[in-house]
Amino acid sequence: MKFLQLTLFLMFAQAVYAEDGSRLWLRYQENSSRAEVICKHKITPTIAVAKQELESNWKGRKIYLQILSSKKTSPHPDDSFSIISKANEIVISSISEVGLLYGAYHLLRLQETAQLTDNVNISETPKYNLRILNHWDNLDGTVERGYAGGSLWQWNELPENLSPRYRQYARANASIGINGTVVNNVNASPNILTTHYLQKVKALADVFRPYGIKIYISVNFSSPAIIGGLPTSDPLNSETIAWWHSKVAEIYTIIPDFGGFLVKANSEGQPGPQDFGRTHADGANMLAAALKKHGGIVMWRAFVYNPTAGDRAKQAFDEFTPLDGLFADNVIVQVKNGPIDFQPREPFNPLFGGLKKTLIMPELQITQEYLGQSKHLVFLAPMWQDFFESDTYCNGQGSLIKTITTNQKINAIAGVANIGEDANWCGSHFAQANWYAFGRMAWNPNLTAEQIADEWLAQTFIPDKNFTSPATDIMLQSWEACINYMMPLGLHHLFAWEHHYGPQPWCDIPDAREDWLPKYYHRADSAGLGFDRTTSGSNAVAQYHSPLREQFDDIKTCPEKYALWFHHLKWNDTLYTESAQKSSCYFENGSESAPQNFTLWEALCYHYNYGVAQVRQMQKTWQQCGQMIDTERFVRVQSGLKTQARDAMWWRDACLLYFQTFSKQQIPFNMEQPVYELEDLKKINLGNGSLN
Amino acid sequence: MKFLQLTLFLMFAQAVYAEDGSRLWLRYQENSSRAEVICKHKITPTIAVAKQELESNWKGRKIYLQILSSKKTSPHPDDSFSIISKANEIVISSISEVGLLYGAYHLLRLQETAQLTDNVNISETPKYNLRILNHWDNLDGTVERGYAGGSLWQWNELPENLSPRYRQYARANASIGINGTVVNNVNASPNILTTHYLQKVKALADVFRPYGIKIYISVNFSSPAIIGGLPTSDPLNSETIAWWHSKVAEIYTIIPDFGGFLVKANSEGQPGPQDFGRTHADGANMLAAALKKHGGIVMWRAFVYNPTAGDRAKQAFDEFTPLDGLFADNVIVQVKNGPIDFQPREPFNPLFGGLKKTLIMPELQITQEYLGQSKHLVFLAPMWQDFFESDTYCNGQGSLIKTITTNQKINAIAGVANIGEDANWCGSHFAQANWYAFGRMAWNPNLTAEQIADEWLAQTFIPDKNFTSPATDIMLQSWEACINYMMPLGLHHLFAWEHHYGPQPWCDIPDAREDWLPKYYHRADSAGLGFDRTTSGSNAVAQYHSPLREQFDDIKTCPEKYALWFHHLKWNDTLYTESAQKSSCYFENGSESAPQNFTLWEALCYHYNYGVAQVRQMQKTWQQCGQMIDTERFVRVQSGLKTQARDAMWWRDACLLYFQTFSKQQIPFNMEQPVYELEDLKKINLGNGSLN
Questions:
Q1: What share of chain A is helix, strand, coil (3-state, %, to 5)?
Q2: Has A324 been annotated as catalytic?
Q3: Which string of b and e fits A677-688 if b means at least 16 CB within 10 Å?
Q4: Which uninterrupted H or E stretch holds A144?
Q5: Residues of chain B neighbouring A692 (CB-CB closer than 8 A)
Q6: Is A369 tagged catalytic?
Q7: CA-to-CA distance for B399 and A572, rounded, in angstroms?
Q8: CA R_g for chain A
Q9: Best mutation target, A605, A615, A675, to test chain B (most B CBs within 10 A)
Q10: Where are the domain boundaries for CATH 3.30.379.10 in chain A?
Q11: Could you tell me whether strands A528-529 and A412-416 are parallel, antiparallel, or unpaired per DSSP bridges?
Q12: Structure pTM?
């Protein structure tokens, strides 16, 4: 009987949660009786959340929640907290309520990752004050570049009906320190500013508020004309100005702690101040003036490029640097990490270090638009770590991006969300790690990808080194693997038209914008491959500070990983030089030293093949460690890796066989050979987003 | 100008022959002036061919063609010849005209393969007297199990119009010693025996005759009833007997050197003597009697199995051994190499050594019905070498199949042709090697697969060791590779329904004959895998002579390659034993010694993965050596190997993932993991014969 009862209990326990990823990294075992949590402060909604999380999930000593008095004033709440243990208790203290909440989640994280020690003495302060998700969610329920189902926001049901997932979403964000969300697409519908929709946004804001999350919205620059009925949306027109002031006042009436606007203007067909002969600064400052008195900000995107101008990689810099110093003090320019568009690997955007008298915030892409979407396991923290650590040299050596963007009057960072209405939120289990990593790095860009992978794995799966250590290997290897099988050596934008999933380096769409075609970027010809951005080419290198510009300009000193980003190399150019960074791909066959002489063509073949081998290694490692976790998630990830392994071969063959039509050279016989025919790969209807 | 002329000449020279394989292994550079060839004998059509081939293509000393007088009489011409060099001449001599022709082709082969030495002293006698192709060509122009287009025979245009390819076909066969051809399918249309069709057959016989090739036909046992209008085809009925005697007489009037009949009776729905309560011997002897006075023979197939009887592997033996000694002396029983049906690997058919008082001839399958058809590069000579060398122990140790089948009154061998109307004859370049190898081994089963591969490559491509040596490696490895990725360890018949190209171990067709379904053969269940043919199972082992029957019966002594042919093993049975044959697959990771303990499941995973690795190695090797030959054939073979590499992964994943549903074990993590999902593979419409 005992045995039967136990069996039934275990069956039931298993049945409680489908292992569909819906619990994210928040898998606390609830206490049978509540933990002791004492707070002498008034139990506000935010403190109530902190208290309830600890009472339900904390397994240790008595906890005191303590609000410290502070003389500090800040336009943004101070999220710092400290956790100090005493003999029989632990004290979490902060000057803010949300600081207590972050402290609570921090303590629970230590517990879940088995990092708790007897003596705790922690003091945490976030490096970025504004840690914001950008949702590219449309009002019709679709998500641009979303791979996890439709939009989480049920606009049709709001404001009356509140999905329980809104609160779960807020909780997940709070648990990793995210404190802002832009709920609608940067390609914004003007309708978001109607009272009808503002009421819906308010309903979300009310759910998010206890979790310390502010709401922001993306606005369409032509809103005054489109929904206001004005004859113009010229930012210097007094009617336009009045309309925005009035609209902003309305918003703050509805949502008193509203965060501000995100604006994509004069980019990819969106309206903007240039339509009226005004500058980005004119446009941004006009909106900023309306928001200023309410404490709101404008995040103005620098993602602009003109179909008729020169090298796309140069354009944001060329447009924005002349405006440096002209932006209002509540305008922050939001800049993508690289100068093109979230490619598998880009050098950092030279606006970092280029804008010196302008507030600037990084925009990272959590959704894997260009990195296998929700199908490929690609952990992005190594890419972001690389980005944060990049030295711009704008104030001499040591002017790291993470340093210069966290020492401003407003320190902010945005991540384009990968969240949808799918049960597991992100379309695949490991995609959740990128949401997690964004939050953690926004809090502290000094965290390493390895630390983040390890703690995410421990919380999401099991806190056992036998699992987390090999699984961390998979995650840390995954970005370089993706680069290798997709576009190594500085290649970029070889993606299929529109959906950006598979390879289409041959893509040629009649009448398409030249800079929307892969050929614009790879520039393959009978001589060689790559985009010449040196001083003899587009001179994009000049946008970087010395000594970077000279390093990038000279193939002898340019890092191998950026070779074809900055150079058009000849097929038989010897790629490896003493100063070039060695790539592990050359060691695949177990040789201790990289070959000293190989050509661009050979290096390309090496890298693509190494990418395939890396995915196969990821499969093997998962096969080994994944068996320690639940079958449901093990098999789901195993299946995803199969797709990735097939896709890696697809990418390799598509790119190598296409470039071979220019190089006229054979694939070196000492490496694995293609298995597809170029002509067959060209016939794939990429509309369905998959090879098979 | 000189340069331009040379260039134009080279362009022209290239344009003369499309490298489509149409020239087979016969790529002599024609002499600008004729070589000196002297023959004092009357220039018969056969001698004319020999003389012309040498005059056009021989690059050496003066040649004498010499017919030797002989007292020998034989129902079959003696094809022996000798080649002896003198200071200023070479003498080819034979007692027969066709012997001179074989001598001429032999000498040219030595020339083309760069094997000629100053002193030539060669004496050649074929081991099999009758070296026969079996065409499974239907009168409607289709070819059963043909993968090289339709039938070579243009029945609609015969006898008036003679395709030039008939002569080319005869020449190719003569060049490798083939001296007989059964022109129609063993599943025979009775119409072949009508005067209308016999006139067409005669036209072919007339073309083939100068090349020493006799015509045979497959006959339908019910022909007397179907085309003769008789009430019965009972072989003991006097009217039936009279009809056949009359029909045979008619044939010999039309084709005086007609070879005889091939009969598939009481097999897979074909009519036969058992329909009338008579035995195979009754039926065969009746036909033999009609042919006897004309010098014709009956080749009676032993490929019989009954849907309701026991183990299919046992049935031919059980049906034919009771008739041993009852067949007429011009009946020869034609036996497939293995007891099932041309599987990638089978142990030899126990009728070899089982029939002791009956003429018996091997039937090999040149067309790769079960070995990737014309798409996979699989060189069959290693399989045939293995077969010829098999020791039946019927007269004690040393009773090799090649010995016992070449020491009879009639020594014959048949190969099911892979020839069709495609320009390159066989559907792919390397498939031609199997036609070639069959002819060479039928002449001399002591030739090794390596020798044959090497000389075929030298003639078909280039006689350069830098090419032939690695290409020979590919060919010699290909059979084991195919076994490994399709059905290692003695597995058999996991093929898809009907077309036999892809994997379908799960195949289940309602109301299908049980012995036409893979499950009948692999017998996978939760306990293990394989067909128990031991003394505790179907006892098929008892059909072999000692000590084979004991060896096969005991898993400790049964060769690993036949493990699942003879045993149903448990998934966790330790497979490797001291006496089991080691497979190179276990050394994939470069370890010097095979692991000492692995289970059936692990061994299966090793083998399937090794098969994939072997195909990739074949690709690499081809990439290296293939660049020495013309681009057209290099690329065509390269493309075929890509298909094979994809298919190998398909086979691996289909079989391992299917068997995994029984074994419930994971693929070992130290090997490459599957890239497909079983459910997706099950959905493949195998009707189109390909994965992609």
A1: 40, 10, 45
A2: no
A3: bbeebeebebee
A4: none
A5: 676, 680
A6: yes
A7: 61
A8: 26
A9: A675
A10: 25-124
A11: unpaired
A12: 0.92
List of chain B residues whose C-beta atoms are within 8 Å of the C-beta of residue A677 = 639, 642
Instruction: Provide CATH 3.20.20.80 ranges for chain A.
Output: 130-455
CA A144, CA A155: separation in Å to the nearest integer? Answer: 16
**Residues carrying CATH 3.90.1330.10, chain B:** 483-531+568-688
Pick the CATH number of A25-124 from 3.40.50.300, 3.40.50.970, 3.30.379.10, 3.30.1440.10: 3.30.379.10
Chain B contact for A623 (CB, 8 A cutoff): yes
Radius of gyration of chain B (CA): 26
Instruction: Give CA angle at B102 (B98, B103), nearest 5°.
Output: 115
Could you report the predicted ipTM of this complex, rounded to two decimals? 0.90
CATH architecture of B483-531+568-688: Alpha-Beta Complex (3.90)
Could you give the residue numbers annotated as active site of B? Answer: 268, 341, 369
Would you state the torsion angle of the CA atoms of residues A369, A372, A377, A381, taken in this order, to the nearest 10 degrees?
Answer: -40
**Structure tokens belonging to residue B257:** 């050197």
Q: Are residues A673 and B642, on separate chains, in Cβ contact within 8 Å?
A: yes
Structure tokens at B454: 């090497």
C-alpha dist (Å) from residue B28 to B31, B59, B112, B611:
9, 10, 7, 37
CA distance A381 to A428: 17
**What is the SS3 assignment for A214?**
strand
Name the fold adopted by A130-455. Answer: TIM Barrel (3.20.20)
**Burial letters B260-272, b for 16+ CB under 10 A, else e:** bbbbbbbbeebbb
Rounded-to-5 percentages of helix, strand, coil across chain B: 40, 10, 45
Say what angle helices A631-663 and A465-486 make with each other, to 10 degrees: 20
Give the pLDDT confidence of B535-578 residue by residue, as tens digits: 999 999 999 999 999 999 999 999 999 999 999 999 999 886 44
Tokens, residue B576:
């490797």
Name the amino acid, one letter, at B689.
G
Smallest CA–CA distance, residue A627 to chain B, in Å, is: 9
Average pLDDT of adjacent 10-residue blocks, chain A of 692 residues: 46 64 96 95 97 97 92 63 95 96 98 94 96 98 97 97 98 98 98 98 98 98 97 98 98 98 96 97 98 98 85 96 98 98 98 98 98 97 98 98 97 98 97 98 98 98 97 98 97 94 94 92 98 98 98 94 97 67 50 67 93 96 95 97 98 98 94 96 70 44
> Closest Cα to residue A342, out of A368, A317, A309?
A368
How far, in whole angstroms, is CA A273 from its chain's centroid? 28
Confirm or reject contact between B670 and chain A (CB < 8 A).
Answer: yes
Cα-Cα-Cα-Cα torsion B132, B134, B140, B142, nearest 10 degrees, comes to: -130
- Cα dist from B171 to A297, A592, B208, B211, B248, whole Å: 89, 56, 8, 6, 28
Which residue of B lies nearest to A680 if distances are taken between CA atoms? B692
Residues linked to residue A123 through DSSP beta bridges, in sequence order: A82
Rounded to whole angstroms, the Cα distance separating B464 from A372 reads 47
Q: Which of B201, B210, B246, B214 is nearest to B227 (CA)?
A: B246
- From the list B107, B108, B92, the residue with the least C-alpha distance to B30 is B108
CA B453/CA B459 separation, integer angstroms = 10
If you count residue pairs, one on A and one on B, with CB atoms under 8 Å apart, how many are there? 61
Q: What are phi and psi of A609, to 5 degrees?
A: -65, -35
CA–CA dist B267, B110 (Å, integer): 44
d(CA A619, CA B669): 8
Residues of B numbered 225-284 whose beta carbons fall under 8 angstroms of chain A's beta carbons: which are they? none
